[in-house]
Each structure stands twice: as structure tokens, then as C-alpha cells.
Amino acid sequence: MSVQETKSKELSDARGFSLWGDNKVGWMHNKGDKGSGSLLSMWNKEAFEYKNHLMGTGFIIIFGHYIKSSSRCVVVNVYSPCTLNGKKSLWEDLTKVKMARHEPAWCFCGDFNAVRGRSERKGVRGRGE
């Protein structure tokens, strides 16, 4: 499970277990900037084995494998900035990691703050650059 904009600065064990429903959960929390841009990635410990992670501004990358198939995989939880420069910086960081790691399966999920047309940008001032 990937959550964006949790607004949480900290995540206690009790809160993590409560969100998941039991204690068979692992998680990584990127608290963002004073809760803004915070991310939470959670997984079932009986289905996915965590190996390591990377965090940066706007992302959590979890490396591991599915236990049943022993398939290595990477799950990337993204919260993209709205500005063009912010988006470029985020995707440059993610591209560098992906090019350096030769993992067989990558899953990118999250809030990409992307729009298909101007009408979807209601309430946003300026061009977002």
C-alpha cells in the first residue's frame, strides 16, 4: 500500500499496526517537510520480504522480493511536486537509481500531479514552473 500526503511527521508502531489491521506489516515513512509531501509505503511481511530502501524528496523506493515466487522487485512510492522544475528533479533522481540498479521488476505508484489538460488545473495559479 502506498499513501501520499499523510501529513504525519512520525508513525508509531501502534498507528502502523492500526492502519494495516495487524502486526504482520512492514513500513517505511518519509516524513517530508513538516508533514507536507509525506509518504508511507506498507507491505505484508508474509508476502513480501524487505531487503533495503532509498528515500529522497518525493519518493520511497523499497527493494525486496515476493516470498512465494522469490521474484525480486522494486516498489517506488512517488509524490511529485506540481512545479515543472520539481518534477524534472524528481524524475532525474529516480532515473539515476533505476539505471544503477538492474532489478527485473519495477512498480511506480503514487501521486504524479500530472494533468491531461488545462481544465484539470483549476485553482492552480501560474504555469507551475
Mean pLDDT metric: 85
Rg measurement, Å: 16 Å
Question: Spatial order of the strands in the main sheet?
Answer: 4-5-6-7
Sheet with the most strands, sense and barrel status:
4 strands, mixed
CATH architecture identity: 4-Layer Sandwich
Strand content: 35-45%
Report the total helices. 2
Structure in words:
By secondary structure, the chain is α+β, with helices and mostly antiparallel strands. It has a single domain (2-121), classed as Endonuclease/exonuclease/phosphatase (Deoxyribonuclease I, Chain A). It is 19% helix and 36% strand. The strands form two sheets. The protein has a four-stranded mixed beta sheet, covered by helices on one side. The protein is globular and about 45 Å long. The mean pLDDT is 85.
Summarize the structure.
The chain is an alpha+beta fold. 19% of the residues lie in helices and 36% in strands. The protein has helices at residues 13-20, 84-100, and strands at residues 2-4, 25-30, 39-44, 48-56, 59-66, 72-79, 106-111.
Please name the defining characteristics of this protein.
4-stranded mixed β-sheet, 19% helix, single chain, 129 residues
